[in-house]
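[Primary structure, fold]
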Amino acid sequence: MIRTAVDRTFLPTKGVLEEVGNMMLLTGRTIVSAVRPPYPYGPEFVGQFMFALRLCWFPLLVSTVAFGYEAPGLQAANFLVLFGALDRLGGFFVLASIREFAPFVDAIVLAGVAGTAITADLGARKIREELDALQVLGVDPVKNLVVPRFLALMLVTGLFDIYALLFGIFGGVLATLVNHAPLGPFWATFFNNASTTDLWGSVVKTTLFGAIIAVVCCYKGMTASGGAEGVGRAVNQAVVIAFLGIFAFNYVFTQVLLATHPELTTIIR
């Protein structure tokens, strides 16, 4: 009875740790396969990149404008109006949009749209035993299937971050106009607080978000089992795990960035 209670307590934790370890091993294999010749994944990389680009640009546009206008835009504007400091909204957007909202919305859209498609595709191939057939033929599934998706998702997520920043800031412009305030003070405080560190930190963070999404979704797809129901379960699990990985990595990355660049802690000057 005690053993049963212990198993119920620790087996889920053991399973989680095993999955995390397997994902880390897949990450290492993917990086090694990406840099080691030959490089047969060029066409597949281009195809995956264009697929993610075509699939995600419109949901990202709508999401970034909506988040930028509603959350940091209207909410912060309503708060700043109480103190007669609406001109500080631009400085707040450096913190809200460039550092957090744009990267998060970018990663969430990519995980929910492109990541689920990757998991479903690889999961269906796993169920049809196509991955086993590739191994029998001497074709490495990691180099030919995981690497192009890994690189494509990293690249498209980093590029989409710039796209998300532009439309997220546009949401702040809309919030300023809705409150009948001039745009001059908004841009003045925005550029006074913005720095190249904010920009490259945002792009690097979202690029690594793309790596996390790719590894998680590829792993869950390649380990799917149980027919069509198993593929659906793998897709759900991939999205949840990708979100958790993004949140955890964002905490670590932000702490390291602020610790190494303490000037970023001064906001709205």
